Amino acid sequence: MKGNTILKPLAVACVAALLTACKDKVTSPAMQGAQGMQEASADIVASQILPEPFTARAPLDPFFINQPSEMMIRANDRRDIAIQRLVTPPGPGSWHIHPGPSFGIVHQGEVMITRYSKKDGCVSTVYGPNQAYFEVAGEVHRATVLGTTTAVEYKARFYTPVGDPFSTTVPAPDCSSM
């Protein structure tokens, strides 16, 4: 059963690669008429398979990785690690915090991350396709999907206590005071 959790995202990635290959431009003049049908079929399949959100989550035993001077990361307790595909409609999300750091890649749409700190107040940054960002553990923030396009993001989440939620909703900060 656990294998299916990993196989589903892998299958989706393989289908995406196949569909991308199916959309290559036809170079033979004799095949130009078939190109429209091929693209339409690939778009229909992609719209039915690829928009699905998913979460692959598993506990990771304590570890210590030290690769000076670039990175040091450790977990003293067993914690969950997760990979997600989030599909979010336009509009603001709730203010929240995470128990561990998260890394995100925007695949589709535009996502504005608004972070709050006592020192700086609310600071917003917009991320578009193929841009990445991080979320610090315990940092109050929210995501807002801009425009009319649904956002698709991939997230890697670390240090979540086994079985606990990835985020906790918090009251909205006073962003107007800065």
Count of DSSP strands: 13
Question: What number of structural domains do the residues give?
Answer: 2
Mean pLDDT: 80
CATH architecture call of the largest domain: Sandwich
Count of alpha/pi helices: 2
Poorly predicted runs of 5 or more residues = 1-40, 42-47
CATH top level label of the largest domain: Mainly Beta
Tags for this entry?
single chain, 178 residues, alpha+beta, Jelly Rolls, five-stranded antiparallel β-sheet, four-stranded antiparallel β-sheet, 44% strand, globular, disordered N terminus
Describe this structure in words.
The chain has a 5-stranded antiparallel beta sheet with strand order 1-4-12-7-10. The protein has 2 domains: 2-49; 54-177, Jelly Rolls. The chain is built from 2 helices and 13 strands. It has helices at 2-22, 32-49; strands spanning 54-60, 63-67, 71-75, 79-88, 91-92, 96-97, 102-108, 110-117, 121-127, 131-135, 140-146, 151-161, 168-169. 22% of the residues lie in helices and 44% in strands. β8 (110-117) and β9 form a beta hairpin. The chain is globular and about 40 Å long. The longest helix is centred in the N-terminal third of the chain and has 21 residues, at 2-22.
